[in-house]
Amino acid sequence: MRSKKRSGWAEERPFWAVALTNLVLIVALGAAGTALFLYGQQQGQPELLKQVPPPLLVFPFFALWLAYLFWGRGFWREVSPRRFQQLGAADGALLALPLLVVVVNLFDAQTTLAWSPNTLAYYAAFCALVAFVEEGLYRGLFIKWLLPRGWGVAVWVSSAVFGVTHALNLLGGQSVAQTAVQIAFALLFGLVAALLRLRLGSLLPLMLWHFLFDFTSFLGQNPSGNLGLEVLNCVLLALYAAWLYRQQRSA
């Protein structure tokens, strides 16, 4: 008689799994930021924290862990069941508004073409790393763990955790007002990304969207940002999230 396959600890206690995994990420990022700050003070370079972002020190380890789970343990088919080649024109149309958000962000960043090829390559690699880790974690593992509790729970919890995690930007000297706007935007970004994950069944388009948004953010030299355009992006994402949520409920 074959024994019944047991689910893992994360599937049995998804809320604890999400909370503990995110806590490890937050603590690691906080420790990296503190270490960079202290090292910069000792070397007389207080701006080191901005020059070397904490995710650059932490995310490679999470990327290796996710790569092991996705391809070493075979989780990729569970977190991204549809192949990229299987996505059709209707699926691509769902990405029209997310790409519009990228265009708005491009104007917000006041893009300049004065970057060297090496600098562009560095930011492209960094943004690809962030996109892989954050989408693989929040829209990949977290939704996989939470989905048995209901798609609404999976969408809201993964998005809320994603939004709150961006409060860490306060440690980098960002103002409370800017951080509050970023948390709201991250929450809405997470809602749209999570709902698209359910509709598309693939993480790859979300990773591409995440990469393009972050990359256009780094292209500009406008550190304060344009509040009007940031609010516009939030409104666009909020309306789109509401539409996707309604579509998911009626599916």
TrEMBL record:
Domain of life assignment: Bacteria
Parts of the chain that traverse the membrane: 15-37, 57-76, 88-107, 150-170, 176-196, 227-245
InterPro entries for the chain: CAAX_protease (IPR052710), Rce1/LyrA-like_dom (IPR003675)
Name the UniProt record assigns to this protein: CAAX prenyl protease 2/Lysostaphin resistance protein A-like domain-containing protein
Presence of keyword Transmembrane helix: yes
One Pfam family here: Rce1-like
Keyword Membrane set for record: yes
Keywords on record: Membrane, Transmembrane, Transmembrane helix
Residue ranges of domain CAAX prenyl protease 2/Lysostaphin resistance protein A-like in the record: 118-215
